[in-house]
Amino acid sequence: MADASHDRDNSTPSFRIRPLSLFANLALRRPRNIEASTLGRDAMAGAISAVVQIAYCISFAALIFTGDLAGGFPLGLAGLIMGTVVTCVVIAMTSTFSPVIGGPDSPAVAVMSVLAASIATALAAKGAGTQQIIVNVLVALSVSTLLTGILLYGIGALRMGQWLRFIPYPVIGGFLAASGILLVTGGMEVVTQTDLTLSPSSWELLYSPLYGPQLLIGMLFAVAIPVLARWVPDYLALPIAFFAFLIVLNGSLFGIVGDESVRAAWFLPKLGELSLWWPLSAMIGEQVDWGVIAQSSAEIGSFCGVMAIALLLDVSSLEVARQKTADLDQEFRSNGLANLLASVLGGFGGSLSMNACLLLDESGATTRWAGAIVGLVCALILFSGADVGSVVPKAILAGMLIYLGAVILIELWAAPAQSSWMEWALTGIMTLVIINFGYFMGVVVGVIGACLMFALSYSRIGVVRRHLTRQEFSSNVERSPEQSRLLREEGKRVHVFWLSGFIFFGSSNGLFERIRRVIEAQREKPVGFVVLDFGSVPGLDTSAVLSLVKLRNYCEEHGVTLAFSGLSESMRVSFERAGFFGAARVHQVFGSRNEAVEWCEDMLLMHHEVGAASTHSFESWLESEFGGAVDFARIASYMERQELNNGEFLFRQGEPADSVVLQASGSVAITIIDEHGKPMRLRRMIGHTVVGEMGFYRGVPRTASVIAEGPTVIYRLTRAGFDKMQEEDPAAAAALHKLIIRLLSDRLEFANREISALL
User: How many CB atoms lie within 10 A of CB 320?
Assistant: First the structure.
C-alpha cells in the first residue's frame, strides 16, 4: 500500500489477463523451450522493476539528504540501493510468495528523513561540521536498519506476527497519512533544498521563478503516471513517464537553456560517483556522537515500528491480490534477515513491497529468479559507480515523491476500514502530531486515542446480555403447584441478569445504573433479590469491582440481596477482598446461575411459610386437584407406597417405562449419563408432583434416571394397576388423567414463556 507503481484495482487477482510482450507470447507457444522462455520473462520483468526501484532510491535519497545534508547524497543513495539489492535477493529466495521483491518503503523513508533532520539539528547546535553530521546520519540509519532486522526476525522467530494485527486502524491510518504528507512536502524540499515549516515565509520559494516551474513539472510527472496507465500496461506507465521526462528535460536544459546557473538549479550538485558505505569502519571512528543518536531513539523506534506495520500491511494486501495465504511469521523472519544483512553491508532498511510485487506480476514474472534479477541489476548500477543522481532533474525526483505521497493519501481515503467520524478525527489529530512533534509522539497519541475510543464504543454495548425476572425464568427445580403459583405471583421480586464480555471502567457504571433504575422503578412488589451471572464474563478490572461495591452499598440500603454465580477463581478472590461475602454480609455466591435462582426461590417460599404451599398434605393436595370428585383412598388402593432413602433409584435410564410415580414428599433428581459416562443433573423435583409420566404414556424406555435426594415418599402406579383402575373405577382413572394433563400443561406453558423470554 505504501510505495509502488499505480495499481488501479488491487482487488483483482494477479492472474488477470495483461498484454504480453511479443517475446512472452512466442515463449508461451513453444513448450519445448519452457525453461528458456521463463528465464527470459523473468529477466524482462526484473529489468523493468529494477528501473523503477532505482528511480525510487534516487527520489528517497534526495528526500533524506537535502539542504545541509546534500553532501551525503551519493553515500545515502548507495545505501538505499544496497538495501534494495540485499532485500530483493534474500526475500526472493526465502519468502512464502513467489515471485517477490522489496526495497525502501515510503512511510519508512519519511521516518528516515525525520530522523536525519533531527540528528542534523542536534549536531549543528553543538557546532559539528557538515561531514561529521553526514557520518552520524548514516550511522543512525544503519543502526535503525540493524534494530529493524532484530525486531522483524524476533517477531517471526517467536511467532508473534499475528499480534500486530491488533494494532488499531486509526493508528495505522495516522502514520500513513503523515507519511504521505511528508513525502509530498519532501518533494517540494528536494526542489528548493530547504526545510519547509509552518512559517509562511518558508513557502515563498515555491512561487519563485526558479523553483515554481520545477514544481509544476514535478506535478505533471506525478499526474502523467496514472494517465499513461490508461493506455499502456500498468507496469510500463512509470518507466515510460520517467524516461520521457528525463529525455525531454535533459534535452531542453542542455540544448535550449544556455544559462549554466539555471541548469544547475534544476539538478542536484555533482557530488561524485556512487561509493559503498561501510558502517562498521565509521562506528569505530571518533566522529560518531552516540549521545545524539541515543537522543533520537524515539525516531529510531518509530522507524522499526513503521517497518513492521508496513510489512504487515503489504503482506495482507498481497494475500488478497494473489488470493494466497502467506506464512506471516516466515515473512517477518525473511525480511528481518534481509535487514540484518543489509545493515552489515552498508544498506538501509527495506522490506517486501506489495505494489512492487504486483509490478513483477504485470511484467510477466513467474519464478523466484525475477526478484533476484532485480537485485542483480541494481547491484550492477551500484558497482558501476555512475553519478546517476546528477543526471535526473530535481523536478522528476519531486514528482516521484509527490506521486508516492498522493498514492498513500488516496488509498487511505478509499480504504473501507474507516467509516466513523471519530476514526477520521483520530487519524487527523495523529497526523498533525506526527508532522509537528515526530512519529513517536504521534503513535503514542494515536494508541491512547484508539484505546479511549474503544472504551467509549465498548461501554455503549453494555454487559447485560439478558434480563429476566422469576416470572419468566425459573431454576431447574420443579415444585408443587401451590409453590409454583406463589413463585409466579412473587416472581418480580427476583431479577436475573446475564452478564457477558470483559467488565471495565466504561461498562461497570452502566451496569450499576441499570440495576438502580430497575430497583427504583419497581414499587408495588419491591425487588428483593438480584442474581448476577458472570458465567460469560472473562474478567473485570479494579474499577469494575469498585462500581459493584457501590452497587452493593445501594442494594443494602434498599433491602436487596445480591446473588453471584459463575465467578472464576480470580473474580471470586477480588470480590472477597472487597468484602462482598462473609458473616456480616447477606450476599451469596453460587457455582451456577441455576443454584442462585433456586436459592432465591427458597428464600421467597421461606418468607411465605404460612401460605398454602406448606399447609397442604399430599392427600389434601391430591383431593383438591381432583376437585372433590375422587378421594385419595379410591386411587391409593391401586398404587404401591414406597419410602426411599438418599441415593435410591426410582427409575434407571434405559429401563422399560412400566410405571408412573406420584411424589408425596421429599426431593428427587432427574439425571442423565453424558457422553463421558458421568451423571449430569437436569432437574430437581420437590413435593407434590408426578414423575415418569412421559415414558409411561409414550411406551418408550426411560430417557433419564430419577434418584431420591434424602428421605422421599412416593406412590407408584404400575401399568397393571393403571389398567385395573381403568377397568374397575373409570372415574378415578379419568381424574388421574386430567391431573397429569393439567400438570403437563402448566409445565409446557411456563416452558413456552421462558423460551419466549430467552429469545
Answer: 13
Cell readout for 640 is 404401591
Please give the Cα distance from 366 to 572 (Å, whole number).
60
pLDDT digits (tens, 9 = 90+) for 654-698: 888 888 888 888 888 888 887 777 777 778 888 788 888 888 888
CB-hemisphere CA count at 13 Å for 91? 39
Helix-then-strand count for the chain, H and E:
29, 16
Q: How many CB atoms lie within 10 A of CB 137?
A: 26
Q: Which fold has domain 462-613?
A: Transcription Regulator spoIIAA (3.30.750)
Domain coordinates of the chain in residue numbers? 30-454, 462-613, 618-758
- pLDDT-based confidence at 338, cuts 50/70/90? very high
Tell me: the pLDDT tens digits for 465-510? 888 888 888 888 877 777 778 888 888 999 999 998 888 777 788 8
Maximal C-alpha separation, the chain: 131
CATH fold label, 618-758: Jelly Rolls (2.60.120)
Report the C-alpha gap between 308 and 352 in whole angstroms: 11
Kindly give, in sequence order, each residue whose CB lies less than 8 Å from that of residue 444, ignoring residues fewer than 6 positions away: none
Element (H, E) at 650: strand 649-651
pTM exceeding 0.70: no
CA distance 140 to 746: 80
CB 588 within 8 A of CB 564: yes
Ordered DSSP codes for 544-576: HHHHHHHHHHHHHHTT-EEEEES--HHHHHHHH
Q: What is the arithmetic mean of pLDDT over 46-56?
A: 80
What 3-state DSSP class applies to 467? strand
d(CA 182, CA 159): 33
Q: By three-state DSSP, how is residue 208 classified?
A: coil
Residues facing residue 494 across a β-bridge: 529
CA-to-CA distance for 574 and 546, rounded, in angstroms?
10
* CA 383 to centroid of chain Cα atoms: 45
